Amino acid sequence: MARMSNTTSSGGGPLPRQIADAYVDALVALDPITGTFLGIPECSAKLPDLSPTGQEALAQLARTTLEKLAEAEARPGADGAAEQVCARLLRERLTAELAVHEAGEGLRAVSNLGSPLHHVRDVFTVTPAETDEDWAAIGRRLRAVPAALEGYRAALDAGRKQDLPAGPRQVATVLGQLEEWIGTDRSWFAQFTEAGPKALHGELTEAAEVATGALVELRDWLRDHYAPAIAGAPDVVGRERYARLARYYNGADLDLDEAYAYGWSEFHRLLAEMQTEAQRVLPGAKTPWEALAWCDEHGEAIEGVEETRRWLQSLMDEAIEALDGTHFELAERVRKVESCIAPPGSAAAPYYTQPSLDFSRPGRTWLPTMGLTRFPAYDLVSTWYHEGVPGHHLQLAQWTHVADRLSRYQTTVGMVSANAEGWALYAERLMDELGFLTNAERRLGYLDAQMMRAIRVIIDIGMHLELEIPADSPFHAGERWTPQLAQEFLGLHSSRPADYVESEVIRYQGIAGQAIGYKLGERVWLQGREAARARHGADFDLKSWHMAALSQGSLGLDDLLSELSAL
Fold first, then answer.
1. I need a labelling partner for 1 at 20 to 30 A (CA). Which of 167, 335, 401, 528 fits?
2. Name one Pfam family in it (predicted).
């Protein structure tokens, strides 16, 4: 494991960055899934305790770390800029996490994306699998699945008893995902272990059966006991819960009504621009989505899953070649990123996984195919600028690259969702500004993706707070948002198919407050760039600003604007 070289204070005690990295070490001991994502081999055979007891252990670690941080901030040397930035992040993150924990959110954590259940499965896709020893560790991790899911079930049952139910729609969706993972002929775990060495075939087959049996037990319990018990619970969270969760995902105490109004202003701006661009694609089109439907049938597309994976790899490779040295200055190990196909049963949205701390596992983008074999280019180009280059990959791989100069905490587990998603959406816009969207189809696809992020702000806040739809809306003006209206609205203003739209709205219901961070984060990145440009005038250098911005590690939106403006 990489270690920080920060010295202690002149008084002999640790400074904030050392406290932060000690927290990472202690966290990994409690949460080996996080350890695997960081690239720590010792974690490969283990899974965390997902029970209420395990959750409380994580909370207690946060409390004791905050106490140590307060002591560290009083020591000589703690007033340095690097120490202060890290201390602010550590305090904000742990305080937000404790607020979520103490409200019992971990006892109702059911979602179609990013839940503890999904972490248990997804960690296998990033566990080292090169040697017989690696696969032996995977076998032991497979045998740990029943205990992990038993703890998860205990947490949900505790939440049920405390009247802290998950949303019924989340539960129904996860039941469907579990059915897919369990399969009819072979489970997901059985398919995964087929790539293992022949010498371990028997052990891996048996271990996969053990893990699959745990999925079956969880499915049966959710279907027969939990789902009936929480039937009738709300699928929205209300203003109080929403504000707490939005703080966690955005690193800021947001004015939710102002954010809702901003989402609508972006909707109207983007709709006007899309209508103009749609005429370039399909003259006479009544709506932008009629033009995009034409693209689905007649436009540029890639045929075949493996062909699409290779095409996305070439798209990222070409972007690196074009941007490195002109708008970014990339280390050699940051230049490597891999295009992958997401495992079956994933949510509909593409995603990215960060490289391990030593870069032995590179950054990877993942495409869920949803059973498709033909993929329109307009829907992929901007998305891969977001997920790959210059989006998530350049930011998160650069954070990993500079972890020894900052702290491992600032560049890994301290990540604020709205910072990262805001950068990735800024990256899409940057590629448009730089002229990389070379035809009307691709540019209309970019605007469609931007529109989806604006709509996320509207419906995520709107349905959870049950806000009124404004009078100038082209859709149900004067009514109050419901999940059903949210799904209808997104479906009318998106090129995505119906199953994708449904998956998206279910996602917003299950992780309230996260989806708004794309647009709100992008706004902060743009404001910070313009403030820095105004401060430097003719001397402003975009490449230098990009690299300084990408090398500062994680920040919540409260701090991000001031730091970006000062670069």
1. 335
2. DUF885
